Amino acid sequence: ERLLRVIAPAPDDVFLEIGPGKGALTLPLAARCARVVAVELDAPLAQRLRERVPANVEIVTADALHADLRAMVPEGSRVAGNLPYYVSSPLLRRFLSLRGHVRDLHVMLQDEVARRIASPPGSKEYGILSVLFALWADTEIPARFPPGAFLPPPRVDSAVLRARFRAEPRAEVTDP
Length: 176
Fold this sequence. Notes:
There is one protein chain. The protein contains 7 helices and 7 strands; from the N terminus they run αβαβαβαβαβααββ. The protein has helices at residues 2-7, 26-30, 43-50, 69-72, 88-96, 111-118, 128-136; strands spanning 14-18, 35-40, 57-61, 77-82, 102-110, 137-145, 158-165. The relative contact order is 0.15.
């Protein structure tokens, strides 16, 4: 419920959800928005979820690192998800390619990764993802969650990274 308040879905929103798992976010999100397209890599897990979701949810069995995410949702959609920590950096790079197509993203990440992306220039955590996101999005960390908020609990703290994509980059870059 806390995560949903952070995301603030509207009745006409369409969401691309990455990693729906057992539907902990999918089902309450679907109750508050127009449509959810959920991309799940694990086929048996996707099938179990497919059997439980309402009509406004489409479960796609695919690898979000390789699937055509842009083709799954209309322009102006939003991204949400609890990203698998072991592939969060490559997924975040993929999400940058969705700018101009999706408005924003709200993803649960390892706290360390979220801090790195939202860090300002000159901080110890500032790196390539910080630079790329700072160029194309306004980022912040609106919520943090301890390991006990999850089953099974991870060994790390988690945080929600919010990135609102900008219409234009902060600086002119001829060769990204």
